[in-house]
């Protein structure tokens, strides 16, 4: 999103934002800035997933053309803009200093807020690598990585759906829509649980990696959301018995689903999502695994002061094909493996953000940062 459009939209939604003005005053320090950024990121992933779901589901329900590209089509631009605006506004309020506006000399320095990282860490090699020298660049980074995370999960989910089924409301179509709805809800639930968990850590309420052991709540919330997702999908796709057990299940080819799951890795616990999609259970396992990967990458990248650089799995060096098969009979959702072990890559002991070594943090007023104020879109814009 261009800066001009952001500023215009921010002004437009000022009333909404002002209602949070008291909360923003609590953000007027490094910790407040760090919290604002993490919260903005989690909210953005939730909002973005919801909007793209509405669009994709309208396609699957034959309410809009199935050729519409939900991430960019003008039809949903107002909704996408609103979610982006909230992201920018939250970061401006939390990190923009006394004038609550990022890109000038009174901004909260990024280093103490954990964001003296110099460059956006990217996600799924989407090109989210903008330089970060002030807090508006942080917002651009979060927008780009959030878009990449949500797109990867929803593109996998909806990308190859058999469009001749759209609007038929038959078993296959209901299965398609259940998969999409469940995944979108799960993305949002996981992002929300992680966001709360990181915020509790920033507030000093625990000193754990998230989600496990986290704040003691995140894993439970995620497990509940996973269970709900798995049951919703299998109720619609599992045939008369309502379970993804290979008996009477809707087939991946009828639904229209990728023949193999992307070989991205989760990191709680570390495992690869790659494998052949052979039945309804492996669809569930695949969307679960890829959703975890995407949300966790976006979440880790929202708190670099805690996590440090994101796991390498968030930007895989190469796409490798695997020949293994995702365990089809026992859905990963049912047992919630992602919530049962701790994340090895996260420093557990310290609540103190690692001191950033590159301090391109907010410059003195005499050397204003190169804030892009022209109408040209930043390279990170995806919306
Ligand atoms: Ca400012
Ligand atoms: Ca069945």
Number of helices: 12
Q: Roughly what fraction of the amino acids lie in strands?
A: under 5%
**Percent of residues in helical segments?**
40-55%
The kinds of small molecule bound in this structure are: calcium ion
What is the CA-CA span between the terminal residues? 6 Å
Instruction: Give the overall average pLDDT.
Output: 83
Low-confidence stretches: 6-27, 320-383
- Rg (C-alpha, Å): 21 Å
Q: Structural class per helix/strand content?
A: mainly alpha
Domains (count)? 1
Could you give the count of β-strands?
A: 4
| Biggest sheet details | 2 strands, antiparallel
Q: How does the overall form come out from the CA principal axes?
A: globular
The string of secondary-structure elements, in order, is: HHHHHHHHHEEEEHHH
Query: In which order are the strands of the major sheet placed?
Result: 1-4
């Amino acid at each position: 999103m261009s800066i001009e459009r952001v500023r215009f939209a921010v002004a437009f939604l000022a009333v909404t934002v002002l209602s949070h003005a008291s909360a923003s005053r609590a953000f007027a320090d490094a910790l407040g800035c760090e919290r604002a950024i993490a919260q903005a990121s989690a909210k953005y992933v939730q909002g973005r997933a919801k909007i793209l779901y509405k669009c994709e589901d309208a396609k699957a329900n034959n309410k809009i053309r199935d050729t519409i590209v939900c991430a960019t089509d003008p039809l949903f631009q107002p909704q996408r803009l609103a979610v982006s605006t909230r992201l920018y506004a939250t970061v401006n309020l939390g990190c923009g200093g006394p004038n609550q506006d990022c890109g000038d000399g009174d901004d909260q320095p990024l280093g103490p807020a954990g964001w003296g990282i110099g460059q956006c860490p990217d996600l799924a090699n989407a090109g989210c690598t903008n330089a970060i020298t002030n807090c508006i660049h942080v917002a651009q980074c979060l927008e780009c990585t959030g878009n990449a995370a949500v797109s990867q999960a929803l593109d996998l989910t909806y990308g190859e759906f058999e469009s001749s089924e759209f609007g038929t409301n038959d078993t296959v179509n209901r299965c398609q829509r259940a998969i999409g709805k469940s995944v979108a809800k799960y993305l949002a639930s996981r992002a929300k649980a992680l966001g709360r968990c990181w915020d509790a850590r920033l507030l000093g309420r625990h000193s754990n990696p998230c989600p496990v052991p986290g704040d003691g709540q995140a894993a439970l919330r995620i497990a509940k959301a996973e269970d709900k997702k798995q049951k919703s999908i299998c109720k619609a796709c599992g045939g008369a018995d309502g379970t993804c057990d290979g008996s009477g299940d809707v087939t991946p080819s009828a639904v229209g689903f990728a023949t193999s799951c992307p070989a991205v890795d989760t990191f709680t616990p570390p495992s690869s999502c790659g494998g052949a999609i052979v039945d309804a259970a492996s669809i569930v396992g695949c969307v679960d695994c890829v959703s975890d990967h995407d949300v966790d990458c976006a979440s880790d990248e929202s708190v670099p002061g805690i996590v440090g650089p994101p796991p390498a799995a968030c930007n895989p060096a190469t796409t490798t094909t695997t020949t293994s098969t995702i365990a089809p009979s026992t859905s990963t959702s049912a047992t919630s493996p992602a919530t049962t072990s701790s994340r090895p890559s996260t420093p557990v002991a310290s609540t103190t953000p690692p001191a950033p070594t590159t301090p391109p943090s907010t410059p003195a007023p005499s050397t204003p940062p190169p804030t892009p104020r022209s109408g040209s879109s930043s390279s990170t814009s995806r919306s």
